[in-house]
From TrEMBL:
The lineage of its organism: Bacteria, Pseudomonadati, Pseudomonadota, Gammaproteobacteria, Legionellales. The chain crosses the membrane at residues 12-29, 41-62, 82-99, 106-131, 143-161. InterPro entries: DUF6790 (IPR046740). It comes from Fluoribacter gormanii. This is DoxX. Keywords: Membrane, Transmembrane, Transmembrane helix.
């Protein structure tokens, strides 16, 4: 069990993604009737926004603000005041993710743009660090690198799917 907790803590973006899927599945299973396609997409996207943007960025805030030394070491970077700044940026993104949980399409579009730019930019910085500084620490070149690329792409895919399959309320 301790190994599972360590694995989850070292791969938070993947952990939050799995939790979002599990909550989507629980919502689907709790419905007394079968869900239509639009409702399934809505459920997956809602939980994705809550977990992968809201709670994942709360986690990022906590790690950078309160555990900055540990986080910098995990990434393979020296500690700096930038940790605190990054933490508060993460908190702002988190608030948007939490609010967007059951929000309308326009707010969701705005919610995924900022973390997408941030995460793709971070992936570029991680890649640059891999090539120039040979930084292959888990927090730079591990799961976080790949989720920095894939999670925004998944967010835009879910947004497109919801746009193509709107809920009729």
């Amino acid at each position: 069990m301790a190994n599972m907790i360590i694995l989850a803590a070292r791969n938070p973006t993947l952990t939050f993604f799995i939790l979002g899927l599990l909550f989507s599945l629980a919502e689907w299973l709790s419905q007394s009737r079968s869900m239509e396609k639009a409702k399934i997409i809505e459920s997956i996207f809602s939980w994705f926004l809550l977990f992968n943007i809201g709670l994942a960025f709360v986690y990022n805030f906590i790690m950078h603000v309160f555990f900055g030394d540990f986080t910098a070491q995990f990434i393979g970077w020296p500690q700096s005041p930038f940790q605190m700044e990054l933490g508060f940026v993460s908190l702002g993104i988190a608030v948007n993710g939490i609010i967007s949980f059951r929000s309308k399409m326009a707010f969701r579009v705005a919610t995924i743009i900022v973390p997408a730019i941030f995460l793709w930019g971070a992936a570029g910085v991680h890649l640059f660090q891999m090539f120039t500084a040979h930084n292959f620490e888990p927090g730079n070149a591990g799961t976080v690198f790949w989720t920095d690329i894939l999670m925004p792409a998944l967010a835009f895919l879910l947004l497109w799917l919801q746009y193509r399959n709107p809920l009729i309320r």
